[in-house]
């Protein structure tokens, strides 16, 4: 092992945009795909790994393509909630249509519907060419309802859960490394300003990385109260109170260009918490390297 830690945790951002996919030249650097983050825990000694997918926005399509090329056939997808921007990638998630793939979906039952029933409604004619019953996913997908759970084990990986403040509810996830030494908190979508903020501080305490809903600038936030989203100032305040190692601004507003993110959103966060950065589509971060990366990056926009 040459002095390296046996257990490694990597985070890949397959989609960092919120609400609506936003392709175009003005969003080219940070990306236009909607929410999808992959956390991979590796045991370097045993040469085994567990991949956990957080949300199924449009970034999921590229994740699925890359995973199939690597020969992966086992997928674990955890849904923070079921709004379209967090599920729409399932429409072109090729493993969903491959009979040799095994997929486990973790999410909440809602509005009187089981988790499976929600998927049956999502894949329903005339909105999609196939019904769920006609898809390979009907046979190869297992649904795990996470209502009221505080923790769940996926393979050898521990995942903790925390309710968020969002219309029809949402859930934050804290995914731990195999040795429970490092962790990433995924907290989108959340509107600050309730008692849930302190719960999220406690939930995120000492995390290696906090990914937080940073959709709107503080100056204009009052126009969006009740929409279920937050600001870089609120995220940085939570990051500082929780003493996390780094805070990644996430769920970028589709109306924010790359220049907007760099000129307005990131400086707002850095005024409160120095180790803030903008998440970038297709970027992979090894969390054990994060302290060194932050030292080298200094005041840069991304890590």
Written overview of the protein:
The protein has 303 residues and is of the alpha/beta class. It has seven helices and 14 strands. The strands form two sheets. It has a seven-stranded mixed β-sheet. Strands 7-8-9-10-11-12-13 form a seven-stranded mixed β-sheet, with helices on both faces. Helix 4 (196-204) crosses helix 5 (232-242) and helix 5 packs across helix 6 (258-270).
Topology summary:
Layout: E1 7-15, E2 36-43, E3 48-54, H1 59-69, E4 74-78, E5 102-107, H2 115-122, H3 137-140, E6 141-145, E7 151-154, E8 157-164, E9 170-176, E10 183-187, H4 196-204, E11 209-213, H5 232-242, E12 246-250, H6 258-270, E13 276-278, E14 284-286, H7 290-297
Parallel strand pairs: 3-4, 4-5, 5-6, 10-11, 11-12, 12-13
Antiparallel strand pairs: 1-2, 1-14, 2-3, 7-8, 8-9, 9-10
Helix pairs in contact: 4-5, 5-6
Observed structural traits:
seven-stranded mixed sheet, globular, 21% helix, 303 residues, alpha/beta, Metallo-beta-lactamase, Chain A
Quick recap:
With 303 residues, the chain is of the alpha/beta class.
Tally the helices.
Answer: 7
The domain tally reads 1
CATH homologous group name: Ribonuclease Z/Hydroxyacylglutathione hydrolase-like
Gap between N and C termini, in Å?
26 Å
